[in-house]
Amino acid sequence: MPLHSEKRLNKLKAQLIEIAGNENVDDTTSGRLVYSYDATPNFQALPEIVVAPRTAEEVAAILKLCGETSTPVYTRGSGTNLCADTCPLKGGIVLLMKHLNKILELDRENLTITVQPGTITKEISDLVEKDDLFYPPDPSSMKISTIGGNLAENSGGLRGLKYGVTKDYVMALQVALPNGELIRTGGKLTKDVAGYDLTHLFVGSEGTLGVITEATLKLIPKPESQKTILALYQDIEAAGRSVSAIIAHKMIPVTLEFLDQDTIKAVEDFAHIGLPTNVKAILLIVQDGPKEIVDRDIHKIAEICRGEQAVDVRLASSAEEAEELATARRSALSALARLKPTTILEDATVPRSEIAAMVRAIAEVAQKYQVRISTFGHAGDGNLHPTCLTDARDEDEMNRVEEAFAEIFEKAIELGGTLTGEHGVGVTKAPYLEWKLGKAGMEVMRGIKQAIDPNGIMNPGKVFADKAKQRMVTVK
Ligand SMILES: Cc1cc2nc3c(=O)[nH]c(=O)nc-3n(C[C@H](O)[C@H](O)[C@H](O)COP(=O)(O)OP(=O)(O)OC[C@H]3O[C@@H](n4cnc5c(N)ncnc54)[C@H](O)[C@@H]3O)c2cc1C
C-alpha cells in the first residue's frame, strides 16, 4: 500500500526537488528498487522516493518536510548493515548520503579528522596512515561501508580488542534532527562534560533519532610494528580456553579472531592462501606496538596457546602474509555466503571468559534444530558470528533457524552477554531487545525516541519491535 496518495506524493516530490535539485530526486521503479533492500537476507520493501541531498542544510530541510508530511525517512550509507536497518519497511523516502562524502579536515595538531557521513571508512584509514596516524575501527566491510553507517551502527572490527570500536573514536558530530534543526555535539576536546553526552547518544542509534551530517574522529599514532600468528586446534573448546587464558595473562592483542573448521574451509576455498583445512579451529592473533614488546607478547601468547593444546602455532613470515591472513578473515562472510542460497549472520556476544561455553552452546543448538551453523568472529571481544547457511525457500528450515537463533540469543544473555556486539538491532533483533534491556530500559529508550522524534519518522519499524515476535519477515 502506498503511504501517500498520488497527489500528495507528487507534491512531496516537487518539494524535495526544490530542496535537493531535480537530478537528486528519483521516483522511478528501477531507481527505488535499488534501495529496497540491504545486506540482510529476506527483507525487501520499496521506498516511494529516493533523495540524495548535497549539504547538511538540505538534509535538515528534508527532515523538516518529512516531519510535516509524516513521511518515513530511511537514511542510507552503503546499505551493508546486517539487521535490515536500511530496508524502507514503511515506504517513505530513502535518504542517500552519497554526495556527502568529503574529507573536510585532517588536524595534525589535535590529531583529528573531520569527515562527511558518506565517506568510505577505508579512505579515512588509508589517508591518515600516510601521515603515520591511525584510525583503528576496521569493520570487515570497510572497503565499502560509510563512516555514517559505522557511527549509526557503532561498528567494530578486527582491531576492537585492543583499540575499541567506532564510539571510542568519535569526538564531535553535526546532526540534523527530525524537526529540521542542525545541532553540533562535542568538539576537538579530550575532556568535555557540559551536559548529557549527546555525541554518544547518536552513535549506535541506527538512524532512528537523526541524521549525522559531519563527524570529527580521534586519531592515534600509528603503531610502529606488528606480528601475526595462527594457532591451530583439534579441539574447539581448547581454542575458546586459549582466548580466556591469553586475556587472563594480561595480554591484550590487537586481534584475536576465531574461525571454526567450516569457516576455515570456506575461506580457504575462496582465498587460496594455504590455511590448514584439517584442523577444527584457528585463532588468528595479531599484536602491534614497539618491536621488543610485540616480540615479547607474541612469544608469550604462542606459549599460552601451546599450553592449551594448540596442535601448532605458526608465525606469519612477512607483512604481506600477515595482511593476506587478515584479508582472508575479513572475507569469512562472503566466503560462507557462497555455500548456500541464504546466509544469516548474527553477532551474539558474551564475556570473554564464556567464549568456550558459547561456542559449545551454538554447536548444541545447531544439532538440536538440525541447522548448519558455522562460527567465526572476534573471540577476544567475546563477539561471535554464528552464521547459518540455509535456504529462505525452505519454510520449515527457516522456522527452525529462527528458533535456533532465539535460543542462541537467550544463551548469550544467560551467560552475561548481549544480542548484538556490533551489527545493531534493526528489525532482526528488535523482538528480543527487551530480553536484554528489560521493560524499564525499553521505556527509557522510548522516552528518548519520543523526545527527539515525536512523529516517529526516523527509520520506523527498527529497534522497537512492531509486534512481540515477528522476525525474518519478507516484506513485498
Ligand atoms: C561482508 C560484510 C562484512 C561486515 N563486517 C562487519 C564488521 O566486521 N563489523 C561490523 O561492525 N559490521 C560489519 N558489517 C555490517 C556493516 O558493514 C556495518 O554495520 C556498517 O557500519 C554499515 O555501514 P553502511 O555505510 O553500509 O551503512 P548502512 O547499511 O547504509 O546503514 C546502517 C545504519 O546506519 C544508518 N545511517 C547511515 N548513515 C547515517 C547517517 N549519516 N546518519 C544517521 N544514520 C545513518 C542507517 O539508517 C542504518 O540504520 C559487515 C557487513 C558485510 C556485508
How would you summarize the topology of this molecule?
Layout: H1 6-20, E1 25-26, H2 29-34, E2 49-51, H3 56-68, E3 73-76, E4 93-96, E5 103-107, E6 112-115, H4 121-129, E7 133-134, H5 147-153, H6 160-163, E8 170-176, E9 182-186, H7 198-202, E10 211-218, E11 220-221, E12 225-233, H8 236-248, E13 255-260, H9 261-271, E14 281-289, H10 291-307, E15 312-315, H11 319-330, H12 332-337, E16 342-345, H13 355-369, E17 372-378, E18 383-390, H14 395-414, H15 433-452
Parallel strand pairs: 2-4, 3-4
Antiparallel strand pairs: 1-2, 5-6, 6-10, 7-11, 8-9, 8-10, 12-14, 12-15, 13-14, 13-17, 16-18, 17-18
Helix pairs in contact: 1-3, 8-10, 8-13, 13-14
The structure holds flavin-adenine dinucleotide (FAD).
Give a description of the structure.
This protein has 476 residues and is an alpha+beta fold. It has 4 domains: 6-96, Uridine Diphospho-n-acetylenolpyruvylglucosamine Reductase, domain 2 (2-Layer Sandwich); 103-221, 2-Layer Sandwich (Uridine Diphospho-n-acetylenolpyruvylglucosamine Reductase, domain 3), CATH 3.30.465; 225-331, Alpha-Beta Plaits (2-Layer Sandwich); 336-452, Alpha-Beta Plaits (2-Layer Sandwich), CATH 3.30.70. 36% of the residues lie in helices and 20% in strands. The protein is built from 15 helices and 18 strands. The chain has helices at 6-20, 29-34, 56-68, 121-129, 147-153, 160-163, 198-202, 236-248, 261-271, 291-307, 319-330, 332-337, 355-369, 395-414, 433-452; strands at residues 25-26, 49-51, 73-76, 93-96, 103-107, 112-115, 133-134, 170-176, 182-186, 211-218, 220-221, 225-233, 255-260, 281-289, 312-315, 342-345, 372-378, 383-390. It has a 7-stranded antiparallel β-sheet with strand order 15-12-14-13-17-18-16, with helices on both faces. Strands 5-6-10-8-9 form a 5-stranded antiparallel β-sheet. A hairpin with a 4-residue loop joins strand 5 (103-107) and strand 6 (112-115). Helix 1 packs antiparallel against helix 3 (56-68), helix 8 (236-248) runs antiparallel to helix 13 and helix 13 packs antiparallel against helix 14 (395-414). The longest helix has 20 residues, at 395-414. The protein is globular. Residues 468-476 have low confidence and may be disordered. Bound molecules: flavin-adenine dinucleotide. Flavin-adenine dinucleotide binds next to strand 3, helix 5, strand 10 and helix 12. Its cofactor is FAD. Residues 43-222 form the FAD-binding PCMH-type domain. Keywords: FAD, Flavoprotein, Oxidoreductase. It comes from Sporolactobacillus nakayamae. This is Glycolate oxidase.
